[in-house]
Design a protein that fits this description.
The complex is a heterodimer of chains A (113) and B (141). Chain A is 51% helix and 9% strand. By secondary structure, chain A is mainly alpha-helical. Chain A has a single domain, classed as Arc Repressor Mutant, subunit A, CATH 1.10.10. Chain A has a three-stranded antiparallel sheet with strand order 1-3-2. Chain B has 141 residues and is an all-alpha fold. Chain B contains five helices and no strands. In chain B, helix 2 runs antiparallel to helix 3 and helix 4 packs antiparallel against helix 5. Chain B is elongated, with a radius of gyration of 23 Å. Chains A and B meet through helix 2 and helix 3 of A and helix 2 and helix 3 of B.
Chain lengths: 113, 141
C-alpha cells in the first residue's frame, strides 16, 4: 500500500502513534492509544487486531523480536520506515490544520446559556 | 468464565483474523478486563463487555453477512417476497376474496415460504461448497 494523502482512520493513527515510541505488544498499544487520546478513543481487541492485520499487509508495521524475558505468548510489533513516513505525513497535516486555525483565529464556540 | 464467553464470541469473527490473532485477542481482552475491574470495578467490566458487543456488531456481523452462504439466502428470501408479493398484490380479486390484500398481510403470508426457500438455498450452498475440491497450488512445484 502506498503512503496516503488522505487523513488516517483513528485506529490506524493511534496504533502508528503508539508504535512511534518503540516496539510494543497488543495490550501496550491499546493502553498507549487510550492514553494518547485522553481515553476519548477506546480501542477494543477486535478493532486493534483488524487494524494490525491491515497495517502488516500494508507494510507499515512489522512483527518484532520479543525482548528477553518477555511473555512468550505475546507478539511485539514495530513501525517500518514506510509506516513512520505515513505517521510523519499525518502529523504534518494535523500541524498545518492547527496553524491554519490559529491564523483564522478560530475560537471554540460557546453556548448561549 | 470470561475467557470462555469471549472465545465463543471470537468464533463469529472472520476465520483469518481468528487464526492469526485469536489467542492474542483473548489475552488482550482478559488483561483489559482485569485492569478495568481493578481501576473502575464492575463499571469498568461492563464497559469492556459493552465495547466487545459493539465490535461484534461493527466488525464480525458485516463480515459474516458478506459471506455467500449468508448473503445469497437473504437475497433469495427478499426476491421471493417481492416477486410473489407483487403478483398477489396485483392479482385480480374475483374468486380469491380471502387472499391477503395489504402489503403487510402479504409479507406475513409469504414469511414461512420465503424462510423455507432461504433455508433450502443455504443448505444447498453449504453442500455445494463442501463438494468443491480444494484447489491445488499449481504455481509452485
Amino acid at each position: 500500500m502506498e503512503p496516503t494523502t488522505q487523513p488516517l482512520a483513528p485506529a490506524t493513527f493511534y496504533i502508528l502513534f503508539a508504535l512511534a515510541g518503540g516496539e510494543k505488544h497488543g495490550y501496550a498499544i491499546m493502553r498507549d492509544a487510550r492514553a494518547a487520546s485522553d481515553s476519548a478513543f477506546d480501542l477494543g481487541p477486535a478493532t486493534l487486531y483488524t487494524t494490525i492485520q491491515r497495517l502488516l499487509d500494508a507494510g507499515w508495521i512489522e512483527e518484532a523480536a520479543s525482548p528477553e524475558g518477555a511473555d512468550s505468548r505475546r507478539r511485539y510489533y514495530g513501525l517500518t520506515t514506510s509506516g513512520n513516513g505515513v505517521l510523519q505525513t499525518e502529523l504534518k497535516r494535523m500541524e498545518a490544520i492547527v496553524k491554519r486555525s490559529k491564523a483564522l483565529r478560530l475560537r471554540p464556540v460557546r453556548s448561549a446559556s | 468464565m470470561s475467557a470462555r464467553i469471549y472465545s465463543l464470541l471470537l468464533s463469529l469473527y472472520p476465520a483469518e483474523l481468528r487464526h492469526d490473532f485469536g489467542a492474542e485477542m483473548t489475552q488482550v481482552f482478559l488483561e483489559d478486563l482485569e485492569d478495568s475491574y481493578r481501576n473502575c470495578g464492575f463499571r469498568g467490566v461492563a464497559r469492556v463487555w459493552w465495547r466487545s458487543f459493539q465490535e461484534l456488531l461493527r466488525i464480525a456481523l458485516p463480515a459474516e453477512v458478506s459471506k455467500r452462504e449468508i448473503a445469497v439466502p437473504i437475497i433469495v428470501y427478499f426476491l421471493q417476497e417481492f416477486y410473489m408479493g407483487g403478483l398477489m398484490f396485483l392479482a385480480p380479486r374475483g374468486p380469491h376474496a380471502d387472499m391477503p390484500t395489504s402489503p403487510g398481510q402479504i409479507f406475513g403470508f409469504l414469511f414461512v415460504p420465503g424462510l423455507f426457500s432461504a433455508i433450502i438455498t443455504s443448505v444447498a450452498l453449504r453442500i455445494g461448497n463442501r463438494s468443491i475440491p480444494v484447489p491445488l497450488n499449481l504455481g509452485k512445484q
